[in-house]
Automatic annotation (TrEMBL):
The keyword Hydrolase applies. GO terms for cellular component: cytosol. This is Nucleoside hydrolase. It comes from Candidatus Aphodoplasma excrementigallinarum. Keywords: Glycosidase, Hydrolase. GO terms for molecular function: purine nucleosidase activity. Gene3D superfamilies: Ribonucleoside hydrolase-like (3.90.245.10).
Length: 292
């Protein structure tokens, strides 16, 4: 059993909800809490509550910071929270309560908590700045973050890093984290489902509150659903889903136009492990064996 603390910007891209559904169904996961980050964090917390309630789980949920460090807000709203009125959920979320909650969970469970961060890293950076002892008390950190091997047409910044590059830099540069893993676009862009496959396979009860948003996502985007965040979550329970390269990650913050670009330098002495390859078929078999 793994104790997971989830930090998420659920309510923007659809994959956060799909990742939360996986964690709620994963029998080896003890979800110690959920914290929300980025614009309208209280509404993001309500959406997380609706999914947890649909799964029959009572998980501590706390809303965090809504604004990034030193940069403009790129996702001010949580559009997927617009339609949760039809689903039972909590609505009484105090603002800016996430960081203190994260600190309490980590201190009360030293060397047992894996922090899974699948949104902008503002909450996590504030945690490490406000309570510096917490980084060294974590078992490990898993991020959905970055773009490391330049396999796309041009170097681009991954969205979570781009939304708060300064927070990302603070987290990657922390020297006290024992193990830091990052699953970036190099791997996640290989795990996609067509609209037809989505409609056929999204049958689990835990996914019902997000099905309308899955439909809208398929309509407004290119028709596919990319499992960015679920891949990062699943790697915690099946590490063989991805191969990881060891090295050091640096985050661009000096150049505003290039802010959020991540640079990976391979090294046997590096403190970071980034996903290099992914077994796509194995991932989907694993995900839908858990979420069913």
């Amino acid at each position: 059993m793994q104790k997971i603390l989830l930090d998420t910007d659920i309510g923007s891209d659809i994959d956060d909800s799909i990742a939360l559904a996986y964690l709620l169904c994963q029998p080896e996961c003890e979800l110690a809490g959920i914290t929300t980050v980025s614009g309208e964090p209280e509404r993001r917390a309500r959406l997380a509550s609706a999914i947890c309630t649909a799964a029959g789980k009572d998980i501590p949920i706390y809303s965090g910071t809504g604004a990034p460090m030193f940069t403009k807000q790129l996702q001010p709203r949580a559009p997927q929270a617009d339609g949760i009125a039809a689903w039972p959920h909590r609505a009484d979320f105090a603002p800016n309560a996430a960081v203190a909650f994260m600190r309490d969970v980590i201190v009360q469970n030293p060397n047992e908590i894996t922090l899974l961060a699948i949104g902008p890293l503002t909450n996590v950076a504030l945690l490490f700045l406000t309570y510096p002892e917490t980084a060294g008390l974590l078992k490990s950190v898993m991020l959905m973050s970055g773009n490391f091997f330049n396999r796309l047409d041009m170097p681009i910044s991954e969205w979570n890093v781009r939304c708060d590059p300064f927070a990302s830099r603070i987290v990657y540069e922390n020297q006290d984290i024992k193990k830091l893993y990052a699953v970036g676009l190099d791997a996640t862009l290989q795990v996609k489902l067509s609209p037809e496959e989505v409609h056929r396979r999204f049958t689990a009860p835990v996914l019902r509150p997000v099905l309308p948003y899955v439909e809208k996502w398929c309509d407004c985007c290119d028709g596919t659903v990319t499992f960015h965040d679920p891949l990062a979550a699943a790697c915690l329970f099946d590490p063989a889903l991805c191969s990881f390269a060891r090295g050091t990650v640096e985050v661009e913050t000096a150049n505003e136009r290039c802010g959020g670009i991540t640079y990976f330098m391979p090294s046997e002495q590096g403190r970071h492990f980034v996903a290099e390859t992914v077994d796509t078929a194995r991932f989907f078999e694993h995900y839908f064996s858990v979420v069913n």
